[in-house]
C-alpha cells in the first residue's frame, strides 16, 4: 500500500507554494496537539526547495511546534477530562497512562526524548500538562529536542541538495513505514513496561 509517497509528493508541491511557510508553521503546531502526520514530511521538501533558508525553516518548525505543544500542555493541564475521550478514541489511552508513569519516573528528560524522537509528541504534550510538569522545563525540553530534530532534518536535506531528493523519494515508503514501526514499537514497549 502506497501511503507515504503520495503524501510526500503533495507536501513537495505545497513546499513550492508562496504560502509554504504558513503551511509549515500550521502543520508544526497542530502536529504537537493532534495531527498524525509528522512535521518532517513538510519540512524536508521545503528545505530541498529552499536550501538557502534551511535554518529559517528549522526555526519556524521548532517555534511553531513548541507553541502547539504549549496548547497541548494547556489542554492536559486545564481540560484533561474533556480531552481524555478524544485520546481514548484515537487509540492513545494506554499510551497516555504509560506516559504519565514516565513523567513521574523521568521528569523533564522524557519530554526531551519525546521532542526529538518520532514518538507521538502530542501524547507527551497533553500528558505533561495533566501531570502538572513545570511549564518552563517543559518548554525548554521541547525547544531543545524539537530544535535538534528539525534543524537536523532541514540541514541534512539542504546540504544533500537535489541529488538526495530522488534517493529520498525512492525510499520514502520504506522510511515512512520504518518510522511507523518505530512508533508502534514505542507504544508496545510502553505497554510492556507496566
From TrEMBL:
Keywords: Membrane, Transmembrane, Transmembrane helix. Pfam families: VTT_dom (PF09335). The keyword Transcription regulation does not apply. InterPro entries: DedA_domain, VTT_dom. Residues 37-156 form the VTT domain. The chain crosses the membrane at residues 20-37, 57-80, 108-132, 138-159, 171-192. The keyword Membrane applies. This is VTT domain-containing protein. It comes from Arenimonas soli. The lineage of its organism: Bacteria, Pseudomonadati, Pseudomonadota, Gammaproteobacteria, Lysobacterales.
